[in-house]
C-alpha cells in the first residue's frame, strides 16, 4: 500500500482515509457475500478529481471500486482485490432541472428520495423505485428497477446521457438531451448495468415525469399463486393505467403480520397502484374489480388517502427487513430472476417447491408486471449445510429461468453472485463483453472480479 502516500498528493487530506472503521463500512453491501477491506477510501467532489484518481490507479494498476450507499445485493461494491473504494457521496447535487424538457441533470451520489424532494417543487418525480433509497449512480450502475417499472420502465429507460470517467482518466458523454437519436452506438445502454467495470459515472441526465393528478393503491387476495398471476395478465391486457403490481406470497404476508402487527389475510396477495386523472381512475378501479373477481379474488381493498397508501407500500418495501429482524443472527439471500409472463406462475410454484425440498423457510415476492420475482431466504452463514442448501435453491431457480428464456438477474445485477451464470445465459455474446472490457479497461482496474468470473478476467 505504498501508493497511498502518492495518492494523497492528488486530493485534500480530508477527502481520503485509511481509518479501519471506515474501511470496514466500505467492505460490504447488504448481501450475504463475504466482506473484504479496501486499502483506502476516497471521497471525490468533482469529475476532475475522479479523473485524477482513476488515471493514477490505472498507471499503477490499482483496483478502483465505485461506492454509492452499499445497498447492493450481489457484492457489487465489495473490493475483493483491495485498492481504492471511491465513495461518491460528496457528489450529490442536482445540477439542473429542465422541467419543460422533463429532464434533470444530477451527480451520482444523490439518492432518489433526495431527488424527488427537489422535483416535487416543479410537479415532477423520478419514477424508478427499487425500494432501498439508493444513489442514482448506483442505480444506473446496476440497471435497477423496482415496483414502478411496469408503467415507467427500468433505469436504462430513464437515462438520456451519462458523464463517465474511463479507466484512462478520460471523460466522455454517452448521449445527449434529445428524446431520440440514431447516431452511433448506444453507449448509454452499454454503461448502464456495467456495475463500474467499464467506467465511473460522474453525472446523469435522467427522464422525469409529471406527478399524476390522482393515485390509488389496492391490496387484493387470491386463493393461490396461479390465480394471482392470471389476474396480473388480465389487468395488463386490459389497458388499465397500472403503475405498480406486486405479488407477495402467503409466507411473506405471515411475516408482514408479525413484524408490522397487522392482520392481513395470509393468502397470495397483489399490491397494486393506479396513476391517472380522477375520472379515468374511477373507471380503472371498477374494471379492475371485475377482472380480479373473474380470477377468484377473495377480497380487494382500495386506498386513496395518501397516508394509508404510503403505509401499504411501506409494508411491501420493508418486507426484507421484516425477515431480517425476525431471524436474528442470520443473513438474507435474495434470488432475482425474470421470466416471460407466460412462465411466471410455473416459475414461482417451482421456486416454492425447491425451498420446501431443501426444508428451508423462505418467501417469494415479485414485480410480477414484468415477470421479475425474488425468493427471500434467511441463512446462518456459520452453518455450512444451510449455506449449501440456499445455494442449491438459488441455482435451481436460476436454471429454471434460463431454460425458459429468462435471465439470472432481473434487477439486482451480476456482481459476484451471478457471475458464474453469465456464459450460460449469454453464450458467444459473453466473449464480446469480455472484449469490450479488455478494450476499455486493459489493466482490469475497474471493479475487478465483478460480472466476469475470476478465471475470465
UniProtKB/TrEMBL annotation:
Keywords on record: FAD, Flavoprotein, Oxidoreductase, Transit peptide
EC number of the protein: 1.1.2.4
EC main group: oxidoreductase
InterPro entries xref list: FAD-bd_oxidored_4_C, FAD-bd_PCMH, FAD-bd_PCMH-like_sf, FAD-bd_PCMH_sub2, FAD-linked_Oxase-like_C, Oxid_FAD_bind_N, Vanillyl_alc_oxidase_C-sub2
Region (Disordered): 14-34
PANTHER family reported for this sequence: D-LACTATE DEHYDROGENASE, D-LACTATE DEHYDROGENASE, MITOCHONDRIAL-RELATED
Official protein name in the record: D-lactate dehydrogenase (cytochrome)
UniProt source species: Halalkalibacter nanhaiisediminis
Amino acid at each position: 500500500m505504498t501508493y497511498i502516500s502518492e495518492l494523497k498528493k492528488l486530493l485534500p487530506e480530508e477527502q481520503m482515509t485509511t481509518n479501519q472503521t471506515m474501511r470496514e463500512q466500505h467492505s460490504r453491501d447488504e448481501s450475504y457475500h463475504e466482506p473484504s477491506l479496501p486499502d483506502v477510501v476516497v471521497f471525490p467532489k468533482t469529475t476532475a478529481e475522479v479523473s485524477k484518481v482513476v488515471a493514477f490507479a490505472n498507471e499503477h494498476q490499482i483496483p478502483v471500486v465505485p461506492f454509492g450507499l452499499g445497498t447492493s445485493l450481489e457484492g457489487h461494491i465489495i473490493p475483493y482485490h483491495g485498492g481504492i473504494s471511491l465513495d461518491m457521496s460528496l457528489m450529490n447535487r442536482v445540477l439542473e432541472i429542465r422541467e419543460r424538457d422533463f429532464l434533470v441533470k444530477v451527480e451520482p451520489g444523490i439518492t432518489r428520495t433526495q431527488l424527488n424532494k427537489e422535483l416535487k417543487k416543479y410537479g415532477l418525480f423520478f419514477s424508478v423505485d427499487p425500494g432501498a433509497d439508493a444513489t442514482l449512480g448506483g442505480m444506473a450502475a446496476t440497471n435497477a428497477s423496482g415496483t414502478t417499472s411496469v408503467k415507467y420502465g427500468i433505469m436504462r429507460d430513464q437515462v438520456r446521457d451519462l458523464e463517465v470517467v474511463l479507466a484512462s482518466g478520460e471523460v466522455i458523454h454517452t448521449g445527449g438531451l434529445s428524446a431520440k437519436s440514431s447516431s452511433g452506438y448506444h453507449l448509454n445502454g452499454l454503461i448502464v448495468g456495467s456495475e463500474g467495470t467499464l467506467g465511473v459515472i460522474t453525472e446523469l441526465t435522467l427522464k422525469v415525469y409529471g406527478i399524476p393528478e390522482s393515485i390509488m393503491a389496492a391490496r387484493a387476495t387470491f386463493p393461490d399463486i396461479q390465480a394471482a398471476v392470471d389476474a396480473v395478465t388480465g389487468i395488463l391486457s386490459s389497458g388499465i393505467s397500472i403503475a405498480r403490481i406486486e405479488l407477495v406470497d402467503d409466507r411473506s404476508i405471515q411475516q408482514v403480520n408479525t413484524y408490522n402487527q397487522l392482520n392481513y389475510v395470509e393468502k397470495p396477495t397483489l399490491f397494486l397502484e393506479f396513476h391517472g386523472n380522477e375520472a379515468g381512475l374511477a373507471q380503472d378501479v371498477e374494471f379492475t374489480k371485475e377482472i380480479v373477481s373473474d380470477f377468484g379474488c377473495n377480497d380487494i381493498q382500495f386506498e386513496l388517502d395518501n397516508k394509508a397508501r404510503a403505509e401499504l407500500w411501506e409494508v411491501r418495501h420493508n418486507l426484507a427487513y421484516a425477515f431480517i429482524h425476525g431471524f436474528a443472527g442470520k443473513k438474507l439471500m435474495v434470488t432475482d430472476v425474470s421470466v416471460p409472463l407466460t412462465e411466471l406462475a410455473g416459475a414461482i410454484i417451482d421456486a416454492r417447491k425447491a425451498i420446501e425440498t431443501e426444508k428451508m423457510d423462505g418467501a417469494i415476492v415479485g414485480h410480477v408486471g414484468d415477470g421479475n420475482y425474488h425468493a427471500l431466504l434467511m441463512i446462518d452463514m456459520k452453518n455450512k449445510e444451510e449455506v449449501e442448501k440456499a445455494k442449491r435453491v438459488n441455482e435451481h431457480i436460476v436454471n429454471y429461468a434460463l431454460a425458459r428464456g429468462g435471465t439470472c438477474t432481473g434487477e439486482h445485477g451480476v456482481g459476484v453472485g451471478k457471475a458464474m451464470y453469465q456464459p450460460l445465459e449469454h453464450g458467444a455474446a459473453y466473449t464480446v463483453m469480455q472484449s469490450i472490457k479488455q478494450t476499455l479497461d486493459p489493466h482490469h482496474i475497474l471493479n475487478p472480479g465483478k460480472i466476469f468470473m475470476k478465471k475470465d478476467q
